[in-house]
Structure formats: structure tokens, C-alpha cells
Prior knowledge:
By secondary structure, this protein is mainly α. The chain has three domains: 3-111, Tetratricopeptide repeat domain (Serine Threonine Protein Phosphatase 5, Tetratricopeptide repeat, Alpha Horseshoe), CATH 1.25.40; 119-192; 199-271, 2-Layer Sandwich (Herpes Virus-1), CATH 3.30.40. 67% of the residues lie in helices and 3% in strands. The longest helix has 42 residues, at 113-154. It starts with a helix and ends in a 7-residue tail after the last helix.
Amino acid sequence: MGPGSKQAELLRQDGNLYFSKGRFGAAIDAYTEAITLCPNVAPYWTNRALCHRKRNDWEKVEADCRKAIHLDHNSVKAHYMLGLALLQMEKYAEGVQQLKEALDLGRGPNPKGYMVEEIWQELAKAKYMEWELSSTKRSWELKILKEACESALTERNFLDNLAEEFGDEVAAEHLKQFEALEQVFQKAAEDDTPSDVPDYLCCKISLDIFRDPVIAPSGITYERAVIMDHLEKVGNFDPTTREPLELSQLVPNLAIKEAVEAFLDKHAWAYKMD
């Protein structure tokens, strides 16, 4: 480690101390000096981004995180904070994508369990915001279209005129068109109607929707953190079948994971996080 690197590391430590005391401006200055000395060290950029996050300076969070990702694409913190920044700037699609990347990295070969739960919650909220935005737009468009169609069908008291001029059968047929129109719009609005989370997408122990599902030799799927806690604190056996079970026997259930992601994409409101 050269003199510049040593000085940069000392500046990082100073920045950490300032940050712990809530002196975010001083911390930013320290990290900036460290970056000037060693611009290719990703944690210096993510540390400064965290300070900008505390100040709600989201454009600077975005800039620092993008630089950190350029230096280290596997930086969980950089993807996570970039996702938060993009969401704050109402760039929902890219923000959700960055949070997904952070979640996958957090669960990867070097898992960061302390961050996974926080990232998951932010991702669930982000999916809800993304759905809410598109749902509001769809609902408004459907409302306008429905009113236009109904107006066209009822112009000049059309039903009364039909009954008077052509008889009740023609009027009744026209009424069926109203009923069919209503069914069409109800069907179109189904994707914006709340839905309960299916049981098969929930852990049998926690009863909560899966975040990181793993399957045991018994064929039963559990939430990874929950079954690991059971094995550590209760015993090495399957809590449902009572058969012997070792940690090494647990395998990621990719099918259920994809099903959860698909469900949240379509029904994000069913798992809105506070």
C-alpha cells in the first residue's frame, strides 16, 4: 500500500467517524479527499453516496453509485442505493431493476443477510409504487373510454326511441350491449383488483410470502432464513415431516422464486410494505 493509499484509508476512517456523529458534510469532505487520492476504490464512492442519501441529495447518490458499480459491479450497496435514488426521482422501472440486482447479489455466493430483508422491503414497496402508477393511469383511461362508449349508446335517449320505433325486442337487445360493455370493463379492471397471496407462495412456518425459498428433500419449500433458524435452534430435522435434515441438503427453489416475482409484478398491492 503506497503513501496515497494509506492517506486515503485514513481519510475513509475519518469519514466514518464523522458519519457516526451525524456530521455528514465533514464526512463527504473526507471521502472526497480519499476519492481524489484513490479514485478506483468503490467503497469510497458508496460511503459518500450514503452521506448524500442522508441529505436526500438523490442526484448525487445516483452519480456516486453509478461510479461505484462501474468499479465493482457486485457492490450490493451501490445497486441498492442507486435503486432508492432512481425511485425517488420516479424512475420506477430502472429503480426496481437495481433493487432486484441488489437482492440477487445479497443472496449470492457471499450473502449479506443483514441487508437482504431491508432490500426486500424496499423492492416490495417499489413494485407497489410502480403498480399504483400504472394502475391509476389504466383506471383513468378505462373510465374515459367507458364514459365515451356509454354516451354513444345512450345518446338522445336511444333506448326509449328504440322501444318506441322498433319494439321492446330491439330495445332489449340494445340493453344486452350495455351488459356486455360492463363485463368488458370489469374484465379489464381485474388486474387492478386486490388479491390475496396464494398459500403456495408462503412459507409454512412464517406464513409470510417467500423472499428466498429453498426446498428440502421432503419436497417442502421453506424460507431460507426461517429454516436455517430452525436447524440451528431446534434441531437437524424437517419441521413438517420430522425427517433428518442438514443445511447442505437445502436447494434454492427457483420455480417458486420466479412465481413470487411474477405475482408481485401483477399483484404488488397484495404485499404492500409499511
